[in-house]
Request: fold
Amino acid sequence: MAERLDDAAIGAGLGELAGWSRVGDEIRKEFERAGFADAIAFVVRVGFLAEAANHHPDIDIRWRTVHVALTTHDVGGLSALDFELAARIDEVAS
Amino acid sequence: MAERLDDAAIGAGLGELAGWSRVGDEIRKEFERAGFADAIAFVVRVGFLAEAANHHPDIDIRWRTVHVALTTHDVGGLSALDFELAARIDEVAS
Amino acid sequence: MAERLDDAAIGAGLGELAGWSRVGDEIRKEFERAGFADAIAFVVRVGFLAEAANHHPDIDIRWRTVHVALTTHDVGGLSALDFELAARIDEVAS
Amino acid sequence: MAERLDDAAIGAGLGELAGWSRVGDEIRKEFERAGFADAIAFVVRVGFLAEAANHHPDIDIRWRTVHVALTTHDVGGLSALDFELAARIDEVAS
Reply:
């Protein structure tokens, strides 16, 4: 079971990622792709990561920019699940 | 070139669709799918429609619910493009 | 661990499915979709099933027709995994 | 309208591509991706290229390897369409 991270742990988690920022109980990042088709293919790839983790980010598509937001509803905040999935999304985004 | 529709035309357009509502300069609809994977496959299908129309909706994925919002930035409001794409999205959603 | 099914079990398995046929050590089915974009969206949907089952069919796309072939390499033939995934694919195809 | 290319033109076309080979009336290439999910996302990306070109390759998915084959049925052989789409596929594959 995931545990709710405190501010220190969240800060440490963000320190190991690039481009993610905290907004309330979420961490967010924008991914700009070469075009709309690339954005959709990226969403598919992220979708597979989400299913594998059984943890589903909010995903907003704005033409070729994909906004990803992570939170853990079960703990009412951020958990290790969010930072693990963020790291995996960064891997496939590069 | 698309033309900006007036309120009467927007009302008429909405009258021919089901489940779409106007919010300011957009028309919006929520599509609930059987699960997350179905939602992603639906986004792919909508993505092909968007590319074919060269008109790209805002698409927000919230687990198995997909929010679609249409507007025509070039006219600063709603145009026939939005209502045509909305109708095509409804076709593939059913 | 999956077990290799004998001919009687394979026949019984096929009897519970519609449209699948045995070709050597595989079971196969063709899915015709409304168009190419529908075929691609279907492949995405099947892809999620495959990942969830950790069992990956051969998938051949021929415009709007998708050929799916299942076998279990580890047992050198057909196993229950193939019939379970076939049934799930049929569910999302309908 | 596409024209059927002769052997010299096909050879010249292949000379400008990397990794594609001629097999009868087709040109083919294998794309190995990092995993199955990457393969599916790649197929989506190629699908958008195919729709944009209104020219649809045969696409075979074998776990993380995607086989792409191009031909122009209308001319009973290879045409410039095949080489143009092959070049675009290479762009998104890199």
